[in-house]
Every structure is written in structure tokens, then in C-alpha cells.
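fyi for ur records
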Amino acid sequence: MADASSIAYDALKMAVEHVLGKIREGKKLSTEDVLILYLGTIVSDLKEIRTEIARLDSRIDETNKRIDEISRSLSARIDETNKRIDELARSLSTRIDETNKRIDAVQATLLEIQKLLIELVKSRQQ
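which gave:
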């Protein structure tokens, strides 16, 4: 069963063909005939517009797919970069901790040397 839009289009098409026949015969057109011709051009334009909208919808869908793919690719690259940054941060943190331990050990050694020097100076003064 055809929808109402299709039936109306077919009826208008037949009416336009009838008016075109009048034009070919050189008959005078009524106001209704002119209106039918005008409606025929409007319907034709609407069909073209609908076709163009469908074409644009398809292009938009394809563009959205490309954007989604680029987004996924970029997210993967960002994730990989973040992993590298995290690994580098862990490595630097470990190295800083080791350096701090060495500084603490040197500081403790210097304190021991300072104590020994103080004792040495005291023993020589006596």
C-alpha cells in the first residue's frame, strides 16, 4: 500500500501533465492550473532538496566515522604517552630515593667525622 505522500505526488504529477497538455494546445490557463504548475515545481524542488539532504546525511555519517576513528587513535596514543610518562616518573622517583639514601649516608658519615674531630681536639687540649 502506497503512503499518502506518494499518492499525493502521483495525483499532482497527473494534474501537471494535464495542465502541460493545455499549454501545448494553446488553451488559456485558469488560476488553478497556474497553481498546479507552481505546486509541481515546488514538489520537484522538495524532492531535490530531500535527495541532497540524504546525500549530506550520508557524508555527515562518514565524517563522524572518521572523527570517531581519529579519536580512538588519538586516545590510544595519549594512553601510550601517559604510560611512558608514568614509567619515567617511577624511574626518576626510584633514582631520587636512592640519591637521598646516599646523601643521608654521607651526612651520617660527616657527623661521625665531626664527632671524632671534636674528641681529637678535646683530647689534645688536655
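DSSP finds two helices and no strands in the chain. thats all i got for now
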